[in-house]
Amino acid sequence: MKKKIFSLLLSLIMILTLLVGCGTSNTNTQSTSSNSSNGSNSDNKKKNLVIAGIYKAGDQVWFIDEGKASEKVVKSMGGKFLYMDAKMNPDTYLQLIDNVIAQHVDGVLTCIPDQKLSKVVVDKLKAAGIPVIAVDDPLQDENGKKLAPWVGIDAYNIGKANGEWMANYAKEHGLDKDTQSGLLILTMNTVSSVVPRTKGELEKFKEILPDYPDSRIFTADYDGQTDKAFAAASAIFTAHPEIKKWMVMTGNEEGAVGATRALEQAGLDKQSVVIGLGGYLAKDEFKKPYSAMKAATYFSAEAVGGTAAELLMNYILKGEQIPMETAVKAVIITKENYKQIMGDAAN
Prior knowledge:
By secondary structure, this protein is an alpha/beta fold. The protein has helices spanning 2-47, 61-76, 90-102, 118-127, 155-172, 195-208, 226-239, 253-266, 282-286, 301-318, 338-342, and strands at residues 50-55, 80-85, 107-111, 132-135, 150-153, 181-187, 217-221, 245-249, 273-278, 293-298, 325-328, 331-334. It is 50% helix and 18% strand.
């Protein structure tokens, strides 16, 4: 009897041992499977990165080209790019910021419509753990200190290049001594990235032509859009009928085209000259039999957009630190050289 009981107990112990062993094996298998799944999710996250590009005027050629360049880089590095237009509306812009935060995007490239909102935007994105790079117009505080990395153009020196070209043109065509000539600079005084451009334009012009009378130098403000530039320039032309030969410098290409159309409407374009800033619209003026827009400083939207996207993706994927300032270079283009300098972008 005792032997039977002992045999029974021994059998039970062996069965329990087998059950425990099987349970341990299952637990180990589940743990390995879970770790594999986590690794896969991590890999998928890298492959499915989403970058949002939020632009203050998404219908402008500059931002369209810049966005395309960013999208190309993001896609080549395994991500998805969302292009968003704030329509020059601060409220719309903030809604877009809130939307991308809610969508848990991995990074943001942005040109803000109102720099007074910079801190609010940076704080929102920081709280959400979303890295941001400002393109063209910096995200900055009231003292001009950058709150986030920035990619754009060397604004002051590009402005100086415009001013130098215009002053030399004036000398070559006798406008510096002509009492019927006038200089108009279309400014954007509320946009920090543009202020150095127009400042450089005027300072270099005056450096080369120090005796050009201040009484024939005019400024008018606009918001960066062609129609507003047209209106601002037209008002100056109408108010000063004594000026028959205008030299016009602006803060961007849209401003230059707006001023050119205003000169045409006033019948002043044949004796006047406009220099653009960007080159992306000047190329179309150069293709015409005649245009008062005779030159532009060319800098590539593709260079700004592509560089910014690459810096952001490398930060997200590799942890590479982003420089606080990255500036692209520019060169003067005219009807004679734009195809050679711009290449495919001239088409």
